[in-house]
Design brief:
By secondary structure, this protein is α/β, with parallel strands linked by helices. The chain contains 14 helices and twelve strands. The protein starts with a helix and ends with a helix. Bound molecules: iron/sulfur cluster (SF4).
């Protein structure tokens, strides 16, 4: 796309945004061009907080389906649009409500905690949800002496279990994008850039997390880098994060743990699709009435803890 075409799309998006009284929220893993036109860019926790606070009538959610669904739960009177209806999260699809009910039956009395990367149906079955940035805090509010059922990410669950010293029953889910980051990539990069700090997302494999200086969600990564006196960082997460880190820290160096950590679902959202979404008011994301109250309660409990 030429620069002129790009500018013309951006201009049309701005006009439509005003006309529709819309706000554009974008996840840190979105394409750079999408991050640049967003009113707010953030991690899952930031975005769910923004969605619950905005006065806009329409929320264009540049992310994946469960995020738009969470925005709809928190803003039931607003229109929530996902610019590509196929932008789902494979990890969120790895556990169903029926499977979780079965797990709860087998571990009666346990607390059920879900990662925010779950469907509303699964959230409705849980006591509370969490993001990678507040998981430890959420777990600290749960009754002692009871195991914690954690779905769906086995790596995040295992990380929080180790850090909190709590007994977790893990579900075998994982993020296929973070799974592409392997220990030998980190070892090689550490040899090559011995001065660099290694920051990885807790969705990474446990052996990758063990090699890192610190494991943080994307919001935590931004804060860590800004406050750090170091100037080189090996980053183990989805590649879109590198764009934001470089943009906000132009004097620091960021080395992706692998160029292969690309989430194809996040990358389905483009500038053109954001425009079409605002033009045609598509694709609207809603939550079935039967799930709304229970799923919202699970998310609101997390927001209260945060
Ligand atoms: S990066 Fe992983 S967890 Fe995030 S949306 Fe993509 S598949 Fe889901």
């Amino acid at each position: 796309m030429s620069r002129e075409e790009n500018d013309s799309i951006k201009e049309k998006i701005q006009q439509l945004k005003e006309m529709r009284e819309a706000i554009i929220l974008a996840h840190n893993y979105q394409l750079g061009e999408v991050q640049d036109i967003a009113d707010f860019v953030g991690d899952s926790l930031d975005l769910s907080q923004k969605a619950s606070q905005t006065d806009a009538k329409v929320i264009v959610f540049c992310g994946v389906h469960f995020m738009a669904e969470t925005a709809s739960l928190l803003s039931p009177d607003k229109i929530v649009l996902l610019p590509d209806e196929n932008a789902g999260c494979p990890m969120a699809e790895m556990v169903t409500a029926a499977e979780l009910r079965e797990m709860k039956k087998q571990h009666a009395g346990a607390s059920a905690v879900c990662y925010i990367n779950t469907t509303a149906e699964v959230k409705a079955e849980c006591d509370i949800c969490c993001t990678s940035s507040n998981a430890l805090k959420v777990v600290s509010t749960l009754p002692e002496g009871k195991p914690i059922l954690f779905v769906p990410d086995k790596y995040l669950g295992s990380y929080v279990s180790t850090k909190s010293g709590r007994e977790f029953v893990l579900w075998p889910g994982y993020c296929p994008t973070h799974q592409r980051i392997v220990a030998k990539d980190i070892v090689k990069l550490k040899e090559h850039y011995p001065e660099a700090k290694v920051i990885v997302h807790p969705e990474c494999r446990s052996e990758v997390v063990a090699l890192a200086d610190v494991a943080l969600g994307t919001g935590g990564m931004l804060r860590y880098v800004k406050e750090s006196e170091d100037d080189a960082f090996i980053i183990g997460t989805e590649i879109g994060m590198i764009y934001r880190l470089r943009k906000e820290n132009p004097l620091k160096r960021f080395i992706p743990a692998t160029e292969q950590a690309i989430c194809p679902n996040m990358k389905l959202i483009t500038l053109e699709k954001v425009l079409w979404s605002l033009e045609e008011m598509r694709f609207r994301v809603t939550v079935p009435d039967r799930l709304k109250d229970a799923a919202r309660e699970t998310v609101e409990k997390m927001l209260n803890v945060s």
